[in-house]
Write a structure and sequence with these properties.
This protein is α+β, with helices and mostly antiparallel strands. The protein folds into 3 domains: about 55 residues; about 55 residues; about 70 residues, Head domain of nucleotide exchange factor GrpE (Nucleotide Exchange Factor Grpe, Chain A, domain 2). It is about 55% helix and about 15% strand. It contains 5 helices and 6 strands, in the order αααααββββββ. α3 packs antiparallel against α5. The chain is elongated, with a radius of gyration of 39 Å. The N and C termini lie far apart (about 90 Å).
């Protein structure tokens, strides 16, 4: 005979009630723990989603800024060819010829000068900036050396002459400056690459 068979009915009833009560308590705790776990998981998902949305917002802002800054790069580069031709036309006329020219020729020259200035103004309005080169240390990122000038009085690698002006847009080279650099002077230590071209400032809010 087992111990349970020998146990009075009243004792068995009390034990059964206690067992059922413990089981009921366990069943009441399980949903709470499940809710806590679910809440933790949802919060983790929400934080990840918020981080992804913030990254997407920043990436979209950068893409919009890049599009705004560089969308006209091809057109601006072509317009620089026009300004170069205007400058060549003006430089081909000696100062003496300008002074002795009749009023019609003087008006023509003045019209070309006005067109050149207005073209540069419009390019600058759309973010195209000239690259300062003369007197600067040669930088292959912004300058293109086409010849060397012997000069022992200035540090070697200094830009002494600009053959064709360079331009940048949004801190990127649109066209490097074509320059002549010094040779034979004292050596200069290498400098770190600047973030922007000499003379060019980037709008940090773009």
């Amino acid at each position: 005979m087992s111990d349970n068979d020998e146990m009075p009915d009243e004792v068995r009833t009390i034990d059964d009630d206690a067992t059922q009560a413990n089981a009921a308590d366990s069943e009441m705790l399980d949903p709470v723990e499940a809710l806590v776990a679910e809440n933790t998981e949802l919060k983790d998902r929400l934080l990840r989603l918020a981080a992804e949305m913030e990254n997407l917002r920043k990436r979209t802002e950068r893409e919009i800024a890049d599009t705004r800054n560089y969308a006209i790069s091809g057109f601006a580069r072509d317009m620089l060819v026009v300004t170069d031709n205007l400058s060549r036309a003006l430089n081909a006329v000696p100062e003496e010829a300008r002074q002795s020219a009749d009023e019609n020729v003087k008006s023509l020259i003045e019209g070309i000068e006005m067109t050149e200035r207005e073209t540069y103004r419009l390019l600058q309005k759309h973010g195209v900036e000239p690259i300062d080169a003369e007197g600067e240390k040669f930088d292959p990122h912004w300058h293109q050396a086409v010849f060397e000038i012997p000069n022992p009085d200035v540090p070697e690698g200094t830009v002494l002459k600009v053959m064709q002006a360079g331009f940048a847009i949004g801190g990127r080279v649109l066209r490097p400056s074509m320059v002549g650099i010094s040779k034979g002077g004292p050596k200069t230590p290498p400098e770190p690459k600047p973030e922007t071209a000499p003379g060019v400032e980037i709008d940090k809010q773009a």
